[in-house]
Amino acid sequence: MKTVTACTMDCGDACSLVVDTEKRTVRGNPRHPFTKGFCCRKGARYFERLDAEERIVEPLVRRGGAFVPVGWDEALDLVAERLDAARGVPESILHIHGNGYRGVLASASSVFFERLGSSTVCGCVCDDTGIEACLKDFGALNHNAPEDILNADRVVNWGRDLTRCSVHQLALLRKGREKGVEVLSISPGGDGTPDFSDVNVIIRPGTDRFLAAAVLKLYLEAGDLNPWVLTRTRNWPALRGLIDGLKFRDLCAACEVSAEDVELVYEWYSDKGDVATLVGWGLQRHVYGGENVRFINAVAMISGNIGVSGGGAYFNISSGRNFGSWAHLVEGGAKPSRRRSFLLQDLGTELRRADPSVDFVWIDGHNVVNQVPDGLSVADALARPFTVVVDGFMNDTAMRADVILPPAFMFERRDVLGSYVHNYVNLCAPALAPRGLARPDFDILADLGTRLRERIILPDEETCLREGLKPAAVSYDELLENGFAKVNHPFVAFEDMVFGHPDGLYRFPETLHPEPERDPDYPLQLLTLVRGESLHSQIAETDQRGVPSVWISRSNPALTVLDPARDVFLVTDLGAMQVRLVIVEDLHPRAVLMRRGGWMKYGHGANAVIRPSVTDMGAGTAYYSQACRLENR
Ligand SMILES: Nc1nc2c(c(=O)[nH]1)N[C@H]1C(S)=C(S)[C@@H](COP(=O)(O)OP(=O)(O)OC[C@H]3O[C@@H](n4cnc5c(=O)[nH]c(N)nc54)[C@H](O)[C@@H]3O)O[C@H]1N2
Ligand SMILES: Nc1nc2c(c(=O)[nH]1)N[C@H]1C(S)=C(S)[C@@H](COP(=O)(O)OP(=O)(O)OC[C@H]3O[C@@H](n4cnc5c(=O)[nH]c(N)nc54)[C@H](O)[C@@H]3O)O[C@H]1N2
Ligand SMILES: [Mo]
Q1: Which parts of the chain sit beneath pLDDT 70?
Q2: What local confidence, expressed as pLDDT, does residue 564 receive?
């Protein structure tokens, strides 16, 4: 049987899918204008996860060091008893929710634990650095419709590896290239960008702000400024003063890009025609990631490419912008005025220091031990409290649980969700029954709520979906009929050059921080990039045998002393892991690339050696500023 459903993975392409439950195949919905009949490798392989032998399909309770299967009544009664006991001190309960599954119903656990007044987490492991940077500049988070890239003459792609993170944006770009759109990509290299670019500029990781500032310097020197654009900005004199005081050659040196290449980027922007700017997520995972994004936006603005079709600066939009909350429909508990929150990036330390202590932890949709810095310290900290993990695999987080509750995965449950790239909302319809005893997260929480001494009552799913859809002005019935709907947003963002700040004016960055000095003991930089064939840590265990690979340049200084034939270790000030070297050509000499999400229990988890860190904006995580070295041991 074929069902039209949707992908709920944390990916901006947010595909509408056609699932064939007999053949166990997943195809892109041919009727969906953005999905256009194809899907990515991770989506196409999803039945491998649903059908995996190692999938957990019944509740498990830890007894005497081993996990024992139990029925739902026993598991949920036990959890309810522990929750009731902890509820006297609400902050002793901690809720950690990731984006492992997305949608209107996916907020159920957050709504539920808010009513309990539990502690929560703050800080971001994904995109809040870039979001805050865009909010500072534009005053609102918006970009042109992704289809508008077809109207560009040229594209400057600052660090988006579309071959992995967004194959549908890649398809649009390929279509554009057939019509003559030219693409220049800027990245540390070693990624998929040469596949879709006419020119590639290799940059020192973390330093895009200097390249962008050097381009601005060339604009100033040429006196090539659009007076109308400047009237739409608030603080141009401050940025001009800053740039005037900087030397072009120092800026080139700071980003390790040659003067010729900087001039090329300038020409790419200043020649006739419209230029679209793609701003990647990678370049904001650095200590000054927010500033990187702001200087790139400034180039898009000064070059006259904001508010025009074929131009625009694309970071992302909010995938929740079309939805409203249904939290007010919940009965029981109380919405607290303030909640205690722990910094996600340093969760291990935060939990150890917590006063009052955390006695009960609920984790859903987040392989938190694997994905946050210093994950092993989080693993240690989870040993004391009673920990419930809602997940279907015995990953680095689940193995630390006291109770594991198996969720229905996508295609096995219902939801409605949007995208952080395009303007459609999709229906995730159940195509098959949950495997074994697995149940939708929503169901699990609704059931648990009725078992508490003071009950929490969730509304039914359909009520939540209808309520959540109200701001989208799309009816649930329309979604049931079509599987997706387009929500109206302007095709060109900020078309009238009126920005989201109260005065309607754009804001430039006014400071340019130097890159922190390289530590001579750790002269290389670890970039933990996404995989094409899976989402983050949702990787088959059978794919994680042996030693994980890292990619380095032939001109990496480590190769002068390393013997690649002997065991090689990636070493940071936090720890060491054995790696296998793959030598490539077009990669920055000091970059060490690793594909992220491998599991610590197989020696593949990079976050075992990545230190907690916070970026300059949005309390994001500076994963890619992690210094390292390679050595024989
Ligand atoms: N070193 C390093 N680490 C990083 C990053 C980095 O750049 N470098 N980037 C980060 C980024 S961008 C992100 S977004 C985060 C992602 O971090 P996570 O959100 O932890 O990502 P996943 O590994 O996909 O884990 C999601 C989990 O949700 C589970 N899941 C899937 N569907 C469902 C469901 O329906 N219900 C429930 N209850 N669970 C479900 C999956 O089995 C999986 O274990 O990681 C960050 N971690
Ligand atoms: N297949 C697949 N798709 C995904 C995901 C997945 O896990 N798998 N995850 C989804 C999620 S949650 C997210 S957040 C996105 C992540 O998508 P991205 O953030 O785009 O992915 P990354 O691989 O972290 O980084 C992308 C590129 O940034 C470049 N880069 C790193 N540092 C710098 C820098 O300082 N300057 C410049 N110019 N470039 C730099 C790298 O070379 C890399 O090519 O993808 C989403 N899509
Ligand atoms: Mo992410």
Answers
A1: none
A2: 86
Ligand 2, atom 25, residue with closest C-alpha: 282
* Ligand 1 pocket at CB < 6 A: 10, 98-101, 125-126, 285, 364-367, 371, 390-393, 395, 407, 409, 441, 528, 535-538, 596-597, 606-607, 610, 623
- What does CATH list as the number for 60-125+325-411+432-475? 3.40.50.740
Q: Which two tokens stand for residue 527?
A: 């970039």
pLDDT of residue 473: 87
Q: How far is the CA of 106 from the centre of ligand 1 (A)?
A: 14
Distance 159 CA to ligand 2 centre (A): 7
What digits encode the pLDDT tens for the residues 109-143? 999 999 999 999 999 999 999 999 999 999 999 99
Instruction: Classify domain 524-632 by CATH number.
Output: 2.40.40.20
Amino acid at 187: S
* Residue of 50, 164, 367, 439 with the most ligand 1 atoms within 8 Å of its CB, for mutation: 367
Query: For the residues of 309-326, what is the DSSP string, one character each?
Result: TT--EES---TTTT----
Predicted TM-score (pTM) of the model is 0.98
Mutate to test the pocket of ligand 2, among 13, 124, 164 (most ligand atoms within 8 A of CB): 164
Distance from residue 628's CA to the centre of ligand 2 (Å): 20
The domain limits of the chain are: 60-125+325-411+432-475, 128-315, 524-632
DSSP 184-243: EEEESBSSSGGGG-SEEEE--TT-HHHHHHHHHHHHHHHT---HHHHHTBS-HHHHHHHH
**Which CATH topology does 128-315 take?**
Dimethylsulfoxide Reductase; domain 2 (3.40.228)
Q: What is the pLDDT of residue 590?
A: 98
591-603 pLDDT, tens digit per residue, is 999 999 999 999 9
Q: Sheet harboring 16-20: ordered strands across?
A: 2-6, 16-20, 25-28
pLDDT for residue 97 = 98
